[in-house]
Design goal:
Distance between the termini: 49 Å
Structural class: alpha/beta
Shape: globular
Order of helices and strands: HHHEHEHEHEEEHEEHHHHEHHEHHH
Strand content: 5-15%
Strand order of the largest sheet: 2-1-3-4
Number of strands: 10
Helix content: 40-55%
Length: 420
Amino acid sequence: MPAIIVWVLMRTLLGLYPGYGLGSAEQLRRHAFATFAALAVLAIFALTLEAGPMISRLQVLLVFLGLLVLAPFAQHLAKMVMRRVGVWGKPVVILGDKEAGEKVVRLLTEEWGLGYDPVAVFGYRLDRSAALASNAAERQATADVLTLADEHGVDTAIFAMPNTRREQLANLVGLVKLSLQHVLIIPNLEGLTNSAVVARDLGGTFAVEIKYNLLNPWALRAKRVMDLIITVPGAALLLPLVLVLALLVRLESGGPVFYTDKRMGKDGKLFSCVKFRTMVSDAEAVLHRMLEEDATFRDEYSKYHKLRDDPRVTRVGGFMRKTSLDELPQLWNVLRGEMSLVGPRPYLPRESQEIGAAQGEILRVPPGITGPWQVAGRNRTFFGERIQIDVCYVGDWSMWLDIIILARTVRTLLLDRAAY
């Protein structure tokens, strides 16, 4: 019981209750820190009070291991239940032009776990060419915001005005911050910052520090260790399933069981990516013929680099694609260090030109069996959107982000049948 009390206290001090505004990776990082800190506090007290013989080390280890692994799932389940009964989240108001305001609303709706529930969007259009709102109009609009905030118990405002002059934005923020406790400003730094950005005070001058974790060689080593810790026992457990699938592929269409294709790995080095064969043996030749003869296929393939109703796919292959079981042999690529469990999509060499300048950033890390675009949109995302998602992943990378993506991959495989 004392251990649980210390653990809850640590989580409270780290802002995990209720945890509004914290992303999944940041919540997991704070949760792990709280768990290990609570374990350290308990150990110090046990040594100080000489209570070691009275405490079962195995029991303590199992309790904290259970808290470390199970608590995030329990917290997510609790949020889902609270959301259903309407008690999760707090109301926020958004101030921004039409496009930026709608973008923030979509973001908060999709990422409901943040706990920000937009109750109103106030549109402003203030630019350098013409100040469309006078000081009096600004005060009136701000008064409307404060009135609505008072009616709904709002204490948080989000400013999404990337094109607004600094002086005008400062004036609006100054009027709002007198009554609202929390004010968030989304700066016009898209493409420059990442989720690891840290605010810095340089002698009274505000600055933001951008950390690129994957430039740290120890980060890549830690990523590799996590791959091996999960892959080695996982591959052993999945071996019977791999043998069954291999038999089904051979019985249906004969020919080779596995399909290998050259992909671009870390630093652009080519490697043989292994999958179960899901298509007819001469699939590449059939594809070229289809693209030459059918404009519809050409248009779909240019957007997604995949075909939804692909006549080359076998029956067993279609099943494996929908469940992503065709990618199980890539665990061999992970063991060889050519791939990672989580990473950017393994791109084809012929896609290099379409990737463009982003290639240098994406290829800084090994490609992954799963990744952010698979859990975000699966095959519904355009090719260009996948590239941007992969670029963001490389910039935002952390061990906590990889763990979150792995957990979401399991959920996607169990609930989503949109893959093809």
